[in-house]
Specification:
Layout: H1 15-34, E1 38-39, E2 45-47, H2 48-54, H3 60-64, E3 68-70, E4 76-79, H4 84-93, H5 96-99, E5 103-112, E6 124-133, H6 138-154, E7 160-166, H7 170-185, H8 193-201, H9 212-221, H10 231-246, E8 252-253, E9 265-273, E10 281-287, H11 291-294, E11 302-308, H12 309-316, E12 327-331, H13 334-351, E13 355-357, H14 364-373, E14 378-382, H15 384-389, E15 391-396, E16 402-406, H16 410-413
Parallel strand pairs: 1-5, 7-8, 12-13, 12-14
Antiparallel strand pairs: 2-4, 3-4, 5-6, 6-11, 7-9, 9-10, 10-11, 14-15, 15-16
Helix pairs in contact: 6-10
The chain binds one RNA strand of 77 nucleotides through residues 2, 5, 8, 59-61, 64-65, 82, 111, 113, 115-121, 125-129, 194, 205, 208, 210, 260-261, 270, 277-279, 281-285, 305-312, 330, 332, 363-373, 376, 379, 381, 383-385, 393, 395, 397, 400, 402.
RNA sequence: GUGGCUGUAGCUCAGUUGGUUAGAGCACCUGUUUGUGGCACAGGGGGUCGUGGGUUCAACUCCCAUCAGUCACCCCA
């Protein structure tokens, strides 16, 4: 009989992985707390139309990567492929904008996209991200970029690069795209078939092309987006840069940086890591001033980013120390185990200690090995001798010393341990 | 969806031009120590060699298919 395996592109996190994840998660929670950001948790599934309207019906995410199905009520549902649209939905639905002029939120959770797995890419993966609603000002852009950059730095990621750009308003962009298409259409035959498709479907993506001919053509013929950005937007962007300089955040202005999702406007940024392979983007974000309105909410400026937890984990490549235990209770015989469990429970409740009791009825020697394997600080040994004498043996596993303790004194023995 | 590479013990990997009983290290278990961990030594369990077919006297080894993993493309965190 075949065993059932996990779904392609999903992953089991075994206990040795989970201790790394918990360390990263608590680092994220602590970090965002210092900026006064509040966590938001939205459902794993949503109405499909949320993503069609929010992410963009032309994007690959919506077209071919969503896990969607009709439920019994004949409603199309989708496992969330990203979290900005759901957070915006919640922001609108609960009228958070009326509660507060500014909402600074963060999230952490699983997402689903049906892509071919590879390094740094899974079908179920996790993102941590930040969304801020209410501020149109460059200071807010700088704060969000500061958070993204300094969080990754504080985690110990050294080889990271921050690139920023502005892609202007939706109108600027539409104008620029049509100009770009007009110019490049004349050189259509110079492009690979893939890039020709991009030219028709999503011309900005040409700037991501890895084809040298395409790169050269864009260098020679294509004007950069920056020329078509309005004066106000340019001032906004240069204010962001000034703020980043003041905050000593190293960045590169990459005029070719475009974002994949439709909702981005104005400031965009991306953080990459060299130690990652082909999928080198660890964090991506930007402003999306039109999205709240587009999803039926009030006109609201907003900015955010998302960072891939698995990619951070890959780039970190360090093991956080596993947790050791305080006391292992070595018990021989059922009377001893019963008593050991009572003691263990008292120690847990009274001193908040981590206490593990033998439940496998192993030999003393095996139990001691187990205690060592678990890095126990102490063993409490209860055998027939101890039961007869109404005592128990406490062994300090670091120095090997042993004490005979009266049954009634055992709890007090650990008062300062 | 397309292409490259890889599937041998729980893990990391050896396995000769096809040759009879498939190995090592780590991990696990037992013992040396009849009630004491780490170190050392001795022993032990664990594999339908991913799966199915084919070639052959003989397949872990060669061929085909399939599944899985992985890397890359597309796209994205």
């Amino acid at each position: 009989m075949n065993i059932i395996r996990n779904i392609k592109g999903s992953k089991d996190l075994l206990p040795s992985d989970v201790c790394n994840w918990q360390a990263l998660e608590s680092a994220i929670h602590n970090f965002t707390k210092k900026f006064g950001y509040k966590e938001i948790r939205t459902p794993i599934f949503e109405e499909s139309s949320l993503f069609e309207r929010g992410v963009g019906a032309d994007t690959d995410i919506v077209n071919k990567e969503m896990y969607s199905w009709m439920d019994q009520g004949n409603k199309s549902l989708t496992l969330r492929p990203e979290l900005t649209a759901p957070v915006v939905r919640a922001y609108i639905q609960h009228e958070l904008g009326k509660l507060n002029p500014i909402n600074k939120l963060y999230y952490l959770g699983p997402l689903f996209r049906r892509e071919r797995p590879q390094k740094g890419r899974q079908r179920q993966f996790h993102q941590f991200g930040v969304e801020v609603f209410g501020s149109p000002f460059p200071e807010q852009d700088a704060e969000v970029i500061l958070m993204a950059y300094s969080l990754l730095k504080s985690l110990g990621l050294n080889q990271i690069n921050l690139e920023i750009n502005t892609i202007g308003s939706q109108d600027n962009r539409a104008e620029y795209i049509s100009i770009l298409q007009n110019i490049l259409n004349d050189y259509r035959t110079h492009l690979s078939s893939l890039d020709q498709q991009r030219l028709d479907k999503n011309p900005l993506r040409l700037f991501d092309s890895k084809d040298p001919k395409c790169i050269e053509l864009l260098e020679d013929k294509a004007p950069t987006m920056y020329k078509y950005i309005s004066k106000d937007d340019r001032e906004h962007f240069s204010s962001v840069c000034t703020m980043l300089d003041a905050l000593s955040i190293p960045y590169v202005h990459n005029e070719r940086l475009v974002r994949g999702l439709d909702y981005y406007t104005h400031t965009t940024f991306e953080i990459t890591s060299k130690s990652l392979g082909s999928q080198d983007a660890i964090c991506g974000g930007g402003r999306y001033d039109g999205l709240v309105e587009q999803l039926g909410g009030p006109v609201t400026p907003a900015i955010g980013f998302a960072a891939g937890i698995e990619r951070i984990m890959l780039a970190l490549d360090t093991d956080f120390a596993g947790e050791s235990i305080d006391i292992f209770i070595v018990a021989m015989g059922s009377e001893a185990i019963q008593f050991g469990m009572q003691i263990a429970q008292e120690l847990r409740l009274k001193y908040n200690l981590v206490v593990v009791v033998e439940t496998l009825q192993r030999s003393l020697r095996s139990q001691m090995r187990e205690a060592n394997r678990l890095s126990a600080k102490y063993c409490i040994i209860i055998g027939q001798d101890e039961i007869n004498k109404a005592t128990m043996m406490v062994k300090n596993m670091q120095d090997g010393s042993q004490d005979d303790i009266n049954k009634s004194d055992i709890i007090n023995y650990f008062i300062n341990k």
